[in-house]
Amino acid sequence: MTTLAFYSSRSGNTARLVERLDRPALRLPAHGEPPRLGVPFVLITPTYADGEGRGAVPKPVIRFLNHAPTRALMRGVIACGNRNFGETFALAGDVIARKCGVPVLARVELAGTDTDILRIRAGLSHLFADTEAPCSIPA
């Protein structure tokens, strides 16, 4: 089964989202050497950005994605954020998608709503049923 890779800060919002998805998941450490994956995965990340959008992707996520063989297995990204930050909401997903050539599968506020969880679960089931299929989360 394809796995999830995620980074969660002290707030724990991303970790709570991942826990509710009921999928195998690998948590990226805040410090040290990032783990390597040898299977297709979806990345889930919070967004950290200043008012100009700088620094949107957390450093542990950057370290993880700097390993080309791991990065090549990424099938998509789910970005978390806070709508209070306006245009930078879930910006990390857009940055990663653009740089890595994968789709943004979902944008979620904080730890997500029950509707978000159902929608993401359905999309992941579809995606993981055939890893060659286009990546999309049903609306």
From TrEMBL:
Gene3D superfamilies associated with the record: 3.40.50.360
InterPro entries documented for this protein: Flavoprotein-like_sf, RNR_Ib_NrdI_bac, RNR_NrdI
Sections of the chain in a coiled coil: none
MF terms (GO), sorted A to Z: FMN binding
Any Pfam family the entry gives: Flavodoxin_NdrI
Superkingdom of the organism of origin: Bacteria
Family affiliation: Belongs to the NrdI family.
Function: Probably involved in ribonucleotide reductase function.
This protein's name: Protein NrdI
